[in-house]
Amino acid sequence: MKLSANLGFLWADRSLPDAIRAAKAANFDAVECHWPYEFDIKDISNALAETGLPMLGLNTSRGDTSKDENGLSALVGREADARAAIDEAMAYATALNVPNIHVMAGFASGQRAHECFVENLAYACKNAAQHDITILIEPLNKYDAPNYFLSTTGQARTVIEDVDLSNLKLMFDCYHVQLMEGDIGHRLKTLLPIIGHIQFASVPDRGTPDHGELNYAHVFRVIRDLGYTVPLGAEYKPNGDTDASLEWMKTL
User: Fold this and answer.
1) For residue range 115-139, what is the model confidence (pLDDT) as tens digits?
2) What pLDDT, in 10s, does the model give residues 90-109?
3) Which residues make Cβ contacts (< 8 Å) with residue 18, sequence separation at least 6?
4) Regarding beta strands 195-200 and 100-102, do their DSSP bridges make them parallel or antiparallel, or are they unpaired?
């Protein structure tokens, strides 16, 4: 099983280029991040080239963080801002050879928000297709992200069907899915055709995957048996120093 370090949480006390180097030293196979936009593309590129690690994914901007925004693409009336965020993510992804962009929906509800999200995702997918990039959408649980537009895999499937473009996929985060729906093994099997990336963390504390209510030895075995070979995203919150939290890489 190959592993990707999510640098939104791991080595979050370091610059993104230095976190990439730390992931290499810890024997991860790849990296991914949340928002790389405060760092120069050249510095990130140099760290990726130096380590030989691919960067698997990045997120579109959250928007105005002073207003606690968490994405823009389902916000009616913010279409111009949403598409500017998509364009920004595309510029970083193409420069860094990143194959996936997670387009964040934001806090919204209702049919018009759904239509807005579908329209903005179609825009993203059509532009991404020119660069062989996949667009991802991720359901977030209602406890960590109350009122986030996308909260279940069923809703995500409907969005994907309505956009109807082959490079739109589901980001299956085991942590979020367990909190909202459970039945992780069955959902992985049934949703595999639309899954573009898988992430994991313990439930309910979003810590290392060697404790909590999910048996990741079993979950990883299910994923392996499905023939899924893309590195899995370790998107957990270390309790202290990241390097000190990595014992699970040996035990699991």
Assistant:
1) 999 999 999 999 999 999 999 999 9
2) 999 999 999 999 999 999 99
3) 11, 47
4) unpaired
Domain count for the chain = 1
CA distance 201 to 208: 6
pTM tops 0.70: yes
Mean residue pLDDT of the chain comes to 97
pLDDT class of 66 with cuts at 50, 70, 90: confident
Beta-carbon contacts of 216 under 8 Å, excluding residues fewer than 6 positions away, are: 174, 200, 202, 209, 210, 252
Edge to edge, the sheet with strand 134-137 lists 30-32, 3-6, 232-234, 195-200, 168-173, 134-137, 100-102, 57-59
Q: So which residues are the catalytic ones?
A: 138, 235
Q: For residue 101, which of 80, 74, 129, 78 has the smallest C-alpha distance?
A: 129
Tokens of 174: 């085991």
Pairing of strands 3-6, 30-32: parallel
CATH code at position 238 = 3.20.20.150
